[in-house]
Specification:
The complex is a heterodimer of chains A (1006) and B (413).
Chain A (H helix, E strand, L loop, with lengths): L1 H12 L3 H8 L1 H14 L2 H23 L3 H16 L3 H40 L4 H6 L1 H11 L1 H8 L1 H20 L2 H15 L2 H7 L2 H32 L3 H12 L1 H14 L5 H8 L1 H4 L3 H7 L1 H24 L5 H13 L5 H18 L2 H21 L1 H14 L1 H6 L6 H6 L1 H26 L1 H11 L6 H12 L4 H21 L20 H33 L10 H14 L2 H13 L2 H25 L1 H29 L2 H25 L7 H24 L7 H4 L27 H13 L4 H17 L5 H17 L2 H16 L6 H16 L2 H9 L3 H4 L2 H15 L2 H9 L5 H23 E2 L1 E3 H7 L11 H17 L4 E3 L5 E4 H7 L18 H7 L1
Antiparallel strand pairs in A: 2-4, 3-4
Helix pairs in contact in A: 1-2, 1-3, 1-10, 1-11, 1-14, 2-3, 2-11, 2-12, 3-4, 3-6, 3-11, 3-30, 3-34, 4-5, 4-6, 4-8, 4-9, 4-10, 4-11, 4-13, 4-18, 4-19, 4-21, 4-22, 4-30, 5-6, 5-10, 5-13, 5-15, 5-18, 5-19, 5-21, 6-10, 6-11, 6-13, 6-19, 6-20, 6-21, 6-23, 6-30, ...
Chain B lengths: L5 H20 L3 H8 L6 H12 L3 H7 L1 H4 L2 H15 L3 H21 L6 H24 L6 H16 L9 H15 L5 H10 L10 H17 L3 H14 L5 H17 L6 H6 L6 H9 L2 H10 L1 H7 L2 H5 L2 H19 L6 E3 H10 L6 H13 L5 E4 L4 E4 L16
Helix pairs in contact in B: 1-2, 1-3, 2-8, 3-6, 4-6, 6-7, 7-8, 7-9, 8-9, 8-10, 9-10, 10-11, 10-12, 12-13, 13-14, 16-17, 16-20
Keywords (chain A): Nucleus
Subunit structure (chain A): Interacts with EER5, SAC3B and CML20.
Family (chain A): Belongs to the SAC3 family.
Chain lengths: 1006, 413
């Protein structure tokens, strides 16, 4: 029911995207919406989360963070608290949201993640979310509040974006009611998407306008967005009444009213908020004080949340445009620019809310804020402490505050942290890596509102404060939802235009007449802008989600009906997203504990998703992420239907397996989709949005089709990546998700890269890294030809040269299969290596026999093979003289493999000699026989003496007894030596087996 | 394929069903064996297969009577397997037989006495043989052979059924031997270790209690494993046990054992009589034995080269290669004896130069360094007693027993 209601509601809200998504399945719709939203929605989620957070903050942060938003969030939180009764459901929805957030996060990653988390938390608020959120939230709140207070005003200006957030909140509500957070989410997504993740919302709702809005949003929304998050929270609260949700959806279009409505229900009655509340809240957001008011009434708070979301979404969208794409980084970045502060705040809020949320929320905003502030402070600190887990959430919060940002991962909420830790760490890294982009964002964030302005200015993603104020004002003028809607549309257009004119930052928004909002009321324009922003945000988010989503798809979501269903969904999301065990675990936990645990899982998944995105970003940069987002959104859509079932099955190992396989499949598909997306410009956000949507649609279709197909039936050939990267140098990074064609080099470039490596004068570590990346690209593109063989041969030789046996073994095993496939290469050379390796290092008789029996008469005529066979004979008989002669005449790299046996052979030889010879052996003889003169030596005197020194040194370290005769010649006293000889422990033994590889090189490399 | 009328087909199938059920109810193991032994290609089974191809709905016949349907699952799989086997679809035959074997083992588990042990042996044997054939088919079709591996895990399961305290435990060694055959064929001999451990350490098993033929097979395979490990004394013990206990009329089996026992004995310094090699057609060792007797290094190398493939495949190449040191020892002994004849006073001083010359006569071109190296090894390994005076390039032999015989002890490492 709820789902259906949600979907329906959503449809109205976002006719295009939402309807599509929702329209697909009543129950599934939610899922779909999730999925979609994941791509784009994910952003929304983030937005939601942000909103939620904001809401939470709202109470606290509203003033602090985006004052408007915070209030919204605060209310949201408050509402949620009231909703607690429904919590189970809401919690589930919360989880779902979280999951979505995650996916969404990918784009906005960090920020969105946090948001998501916070969102989850919000949704949880209903049930247990608050707790979870509280953890993270508190932190964010603290930060947010700080920033928020200043920003809020500015953010208020952004009301439009907030409007977007309301939709998010709506989603939240839906989840709460539905438990099918999905439905809510979808709605939210639409709204959110519109606001934050342009993709979803935009695609459906106001694609074109969204873009415009986006820009606008970016400027304003960011700040506002945080409030949106708050709204989301409120919306979650709203969850109680499904009807509200529907309203919300509808309202979503009119964000305010809708959001408010949900919020009201969710939050408690807070403000019957719906439209009026929203509108109120929006204005309120502008003023922190208002926020409190809104807090008292959920509706207002919701409105604020929306704004925050928009803000967040905007920043994300803008940022996404930038290379920051990396999920976490991007998120951070995005948030950082516009919403950064807001987003982060929302998470904080969420976290806080869990902790204190209820009380705080319930209490007037101001009061809440106070309470939250402390919490925030705590949370911040906690964030810092446990940055890893919470960082993602926090990161969003951090975005808000530069400090927070720096701390980004501060969000160490124990629960979240536990789940997220790994991700957070990564996040941290990412954040650091992203530092350039993120740092600014963070700074801005830290500077609460003022910073926002600055950030907005500095960062294209962020909107100027003045613009936010303008939007807020416009929204404030809206009398009802419809007005807001129209106002939003108008605002979007304005912002878009401004963006196109490059006057976004130069125009004096403070003096801009609200009449410019034209057609509809200012409010409408604002709302539209919010949608846009949300859409922008969503698009990036969605992609990340989609990646995860594929996994989710695997799980059936048939069971959403149960109270936990929403949680289940969330869990499912997590599962899907993560494919990770954690998600499943979390699900189980959720089931048991209901809301809270699910949320956590959601958070975890979100974190995970973030992490992955981050990695990607590293690889491919912004464009790649965008593509990913799209793909993810698609997958999310597909997944939604499965959620319920997935929930049910999540626990079982079988399901896990299936999920894994599915996730793999999805990854591939995603990769494929990315391939399609390649043409899309990475940086052009607006352009990207459209293209993304298109791709998303395509992808979704693909997914729908593929969903019904068995993995075995998938035409992998059609999914094989075709690289487009023209960079010759590329660092190796282990893929954690489907490869991005934009970062994969095609064959001709790889050929150049190989030549570059071969000619390079740099050290082995560099070459190894480069070759590994070449190998990866070859593998990803399924290239099996002479080039592949050449690359592996080159690498194997280099590895031999450097004594890197593990790497050599990898290459050799690949080469064996390549040669077996008939690929031409230096098969005999490597047959010789293989023989030597077995003889000298593995000492396995059966293996040696079988590899010898594989050699044909023809093979044995090859010089290298013949040499290797002779070496083998010398070694098995212990003929050290022969061994060292062969060592000097070794062809190819045979001597490199022999190198590694020289020590043993010498020891053996001296042992033989000292036992058999009496009374003495001249050291000079040992020098000569045991190859101390060096393989290349021509027997010159200088080298001779060098060899003598080396030999003496060697003998001494092995306990030999040296005496000097009357002529001054050094002699080995064999009798004494025979009992004192020992094999010293290798002093310079290193784990990687080669002392030539400086440990510090390894560290610098990583 | 001879034409079979529907009625005839019906009759044959019913007859088979009757015989199967009779065999089970009267616990007639030998009849049951005949009914299941596909690879025997016995006429009754072939005609039954033809009948099954004519009369497709054999399952209805099974269902007809309660008597048959009690073993309906077993019989249905047998029929399907036999049918596929008859038309040459070995992979299908294997799959059906695998199902049958599982059902049969399940049934066997429920029978308290071990009356059907022989029938179980047949099943184990058939599944392994069928899997090998199916793998051959798969390989020729370019697919990866995996049936033998699957058969291995089924056999392992059977082993688990038999490894208990009851009377069935005497069957465990047969299954173990089938497992050995499977693993040796697959080249995964390391998997043998777990089975060996349970046979040799589990208290429920008394090795002497097992049937002799299984004990011989078991010793043969474990002896081969010891050859791989170059643990010659242990290999000698096991293979000798197998040789002593195997049916003297089974010359093929004796030859298989000797193929490993001869190299093992050689490396322990025990040289077989030429008749033995002749009687059991072990001519590939003839030259090697000669080389050892004569100290003819060149002959040894030629012999190794001549049969390299065979030795590599059977896994004795490395063992035979190591005989080189014994050949050197023999050569030194000959030089020493020679020298003793010409110059008894300095007979115990072998000049490296002289050794190098002797080697050159054998077409082994070595310089003094290499000769010295070999002498140090010989002395180190205690094949020559004495010491090497590096300065004067002379090997000073011990006055007492300068060339100790191995006498069943391996060359020290």
């Amino acid at each position: 029911m709820n789902h259906g209601g949600n979907t329906q509601a959503v449809a109205p809200m976002d006719p295009n995207s939402i309807e599509n998504r929702y329209g697909v399945d009543g129950s599934q719709t939610q899922k779909y919406s999730y999925q979609y939203s994941t791509g784009s929605e994910s952003a929304p989620w983030t937005g939601h989360s942000v909103e939620n957070q904001a809401v939470e903050n709202g109470n606290y942060s509203n003033s602090n963070y985006y004052h408007p938003q915070p209030t919204g969030p605060a209310t949201g939180n408050v509402q949620e608290i009231p909703n607690t009764v429904s919590f189970t459901i809401s919690s589930t929805s919360g989880t779902a949201n979280v999951a979505q957030d995650y996916s969404g996060y990918t784009p906005y990653q960090t920020s969105s993640d946090p948001h998501n988390y916070s969102n989850t938390g919000y949704s949880n608020y209903y049930s247990g979310y608050q707790q979870q959120p509280s953890q993270s939230y508190p932190q964010p709140v603290g930060a947010y509040q700080n920033t928020g207070a200043p920003q809020p005003l500015s953010s208020f200006q952004n009301p439009g974006s907030y409007a977007g957030t309301p939709s998010y909140s709506g989603t939240y509500y839906n989840p709460a009611d539905y438990q099918t957070a999905g439905g809510y989410q979808s709605t939210n997504y639409n709204n959110q998407t519109a606001g934050s993740y342009p993709s979803t919302n935009y695609s459906n709702q106001t694609p074109a306008s969204n873009q415009g809005n986006y820009t606008d949003y970016t400027s304003n929304p960011y700040q506002n967005y945080t409030p949106d998050a708050a709204n989301t929270h409120s919306s979650t609260i709203a969850t109680t009444p499904p009807v509200h949700y529907q309203q919300n959806y509808q309202q979503w279009t009119e964000y305010y009213s809708q959001t408010e409505v949900p919020c009201a229900p969710g939050t408690e009655k807070l403000s019957t908020p719906t439209t009026s509340a929203y509108s109120q809240s929006f204005p309120v957001p502008g003023v922190t004080s208002e926020m409190p008011a809104s807090n008292s009434q959920p509706a207002p708070s919701y409105v604020q949340p929306w704004r925050p979301e928009t803000d967040s979404s905007h920043p994300p969208s803008q940022q996404p445009g930038a290379a920051v794409s990396t999920s976490n980084d991007t998120y951070w970045m995005h948030q950082a620019p516009s919403l950064q502060a807001h987003h982060p705040v929302p998470p904080q809020n969420n976290y806080q809310s869990p902790l204190e949320t209820k009380p705080l929320y319930e209490t007037p905003f101001q009061g809440h804020q106070r309470a939250t502030y402390p919490q925030e402070m705590n949370s911040q600190s906690s964030f810092h402490q446990a940055p890893l887990g919470y960082r993602q959430p926090t990161q969003t919060a951090p975005l808000v505050d530069s400090q927070r940002v720096s701390k980004v991962q501060i969000p160490t909420n124990p629960r979240i942290a536990s789940n997220l830790p790994s991700g957070f760490t990564k996040m941290d890294k990412d954040s650091t890596a992203a530092s350039a982009a993120q740092a600014p964002a963070y700074v801005s964030v830290s500077m609460p509102k003022p910073k926002d302005h600055t950030t907005a200015m500095s960062d294209p993603g962020t909107f100027p404060k003045s613009l936010r104020g303008f939007v807020e004002r416009a929204f404030a003028r809206c009398k009802d939802d419809k007005e807001k809607e129209s106002c939003e549309v108008a605002l979007r257009k304005i912002v878009k235009k401004a963006k196109e004119d490059n006057t976004l930052y130069t125009r004096d928004w403070d003096t801009e007449p609200l009449s410019t909002v034209t057609t509809t009321n200012v409010t409408n324009s604002e709302s539209s802008s919010a949608q846009l922003s949300s859409l922008q945000n969503k698009s990036p988010t969605r992609r990340p989600k989609s990646r995860w989503e594929p996994l989710v798809e695997g799980k059936p979501f048939v069971k959403p009906a149960s109270t936990f269903s929403s949680a289940v969904k969330f869990g499912v999301w997590n599962h899907q997203n993560e494919n990770n065990k954690k998600s499943s675990e979390s699900f189980q936990k959720v089931d048991a504990a209901t809301g809270f645990k699910p949320t956590y899982s959601g958070q975890n998944s979100a974190k995970k998703s973030f992490q992955r995105p981050v990695k990607r970003q590293r690889f491919s940069g912004g464009a790649a992420t965008a593509i990913d987002d799209e793909a993810s959104s698609d997958s999310d859509k597909d997944l939604t239907p499965y959620y319920s079932s997935a929930m049910a099955l999540a626990g079982s190992a079988e399901e896990k397996k299936r999920r894994d396989s599915r996730s793999k499949r999805f990854e591939k598909i995603q990769g494929h989709s990315r391939g399609n997306d390649l043409t899309k410009p990475k940086n052009a956000n607006v352009g990207n949005l459209h293209s993304r949507r298109a791709t998303a649609l395509r992808l979704s279709k693909v997914f729908d089709e593929s969903g019904s197909r068995a993995v075995e039936d998938i035409d992998w050939d059609a999914l094989t990546v075709k690289g487009t990267c023209q960079e010759i140098e590329k660092r190796y990074l282990r893929l954690t998700s489907a490869p991005d064609p934009a970062t994969v080099r095609p064959e001709d470039v790889l050929e150049k890269a190989l030549i570059m490596v071969q000619d390079s004068q740099k050290n082995y570590l560099f070459k190894c890294d480069q070759l590994k990346s070449i190998r990866q690209d070859l593998t990803v593109q399924r290239i099996h030809n002479h080039l592949t063989a050449k690359v592996y041969e080159t690498h194997a030789r280099l590895a031999l040269e450097a004594g890197d046996l593990p790497e050599y073994n990898q290459c050799l095993s690949q080469l064996k299969t390549l040669y077996a496939e008939g690929v031409e290469g230096c098969s005999l050379e490597f047959a010789a290596y293989s023989l030597l390796y077995i003889t000298l290092h593995s000492n396995n008789n059966r293996e040696l026999l079988s590899s010898m029996s594989r050699l044909s008469e023809e093979d044995k005529k090859d010089e290298a093979v013949r040499h290797a066979l002779s070496v083998r004979a010398a070694v098995t008989s212990g003929n050290y003289v022969m061994f060292f002669r062969l060592y000097k005449t070794a062809p190819n790299m045979n001597s490199c493999l022999m190198d590694l046996y020289v020590e043993k052979m010498r020891y053996k030889a001296v042992n033989f000699m000292s036992r058999s010879c009496r009374p003495t052996i001249p050291v000079s003889y040992i020098v000569q026989v045991l190859g101390f003169t060096g393989a290349a030596s021509e027997g010159t005197d200088e080298k001779e003496t060098d060899g003598m020194e080396d030999c003496l040194e060697w003998l001494k370290t092995h306990g030999a007894n040296i005496i000097t005769d009357s002529n001054g010649d050094m002699l080995l006293d064999t009798k004494a030596t025979s009992t004192s000889l020992f094999m010293p422990e290798p002093e310079d033994a290193v784990a990687h087996g080669d002392r030539n590889l400086d440990v510090n090189d390894f560290f610098t490399r990583t | 394929m001879a034409y079979v009328s529907m009625g005839e087909a019906h009759r044959r199938i019913t007859e088979y069903l009757n015989r199967f059920c009779d065999a089970v109810s009267y616990q007639d193991s030998s009849t049951l064996c005949r009914l299941l032994s596909f690879s025997s290609n016995s006429p009754p089974l072939l005609s039954l297969a033809d009948a099954l191809n004519v009369f497709q709905d054999s399952s209805s016949l099974i269902r007809q009577s309660d008597r048959f349907s009690e073993y309906g699952e077993i019989l249905a799989h047998v029929f399907r397997s036999l049918q596929s086997y008859r038309v040459g679809n070995l992979v299908e035959a294997y799959l059906a037989f695998d199902k049958f074997a599982n059902a049969f083992v399940q049934e066997f588990r429920n029978w308290e006495s071990a009356w059907a042990l022989e029938a179980l042996y047949v099943v184990c044997y058939e599944i392994r043989v069928l899997a090998e054939k199916a793998d051959k088919d798969l390989t020729s079709n370019g697919k990866s052979p995996e049936k033998l591996k699957a058969a291995g895990s089924l056999l392992m399961k059977v082993f688990g059924v038999l490894a208990g305290k009851g009377p069935k435990r005497v069957g465990a060694l047969y299954v173990t031997c089938q497992l050995f055959k499977t693993y040796f064929k697959l080249g995964t001999v390391n998997l043998c270790r777990s089975v060996i451990r349970s046979i040799e350490t589990a208290r429920i098993f008394d090795f002497e209690e097992f049937p002799r033929r299984d004990k011989v097979t078991y010793m043969y395979y474990t002896g081969r494993l010891e050859v791989f490990n170059e643990n010659f004394p242990a290999a000698d013990t096991k293979l000798s046990y197998a040789l002593q206990n195997c049916n003297p009329k089974r010359e093929r089996n004796i030859r298989m054992i000797l193929k490993y026992l001869v190299p093992v004995k050689l490396s322990l310094g025990i040289i077989p009589k030429d008749e033995l090699l002749r009687n059991y057609n072990l001519h590939e060792y003839t030259k090697i034995v000669q080389a050892l007797r004569k100290g003819d290094l060149r002959l040894l190398r030629h012999a190794l080269q001549e049969h390299e493939d065979r030795f590599l495949r059977s896994g004795v190449y490395l063992v035979l290669e190591k005989l080189e040191l014994q050949v050197y020892q023999r050569l030194m002994k000959k030089i020493y004896i020679n020298q003793k004849l010409s110059d008894p006073a300095r007979a115990h001083q072998l000049k490296l130069e002289g050794i190098a010359k002797a080697l050159r006569w054998l077409d082994m071109d070595m310089d003094l360094d290499e000769v010295e190296c070999i002498m140090t090894i010989l002395i180190y390994k205690n094949l020559v007693k004495g010491y090497l005076a590096h300065k004067s390039k002379v090997v000073v032999l011990s006055k007492q027993d300068p060339f100790p015989k191995l006498n069943g002890k391996p060359v020290s490492s």
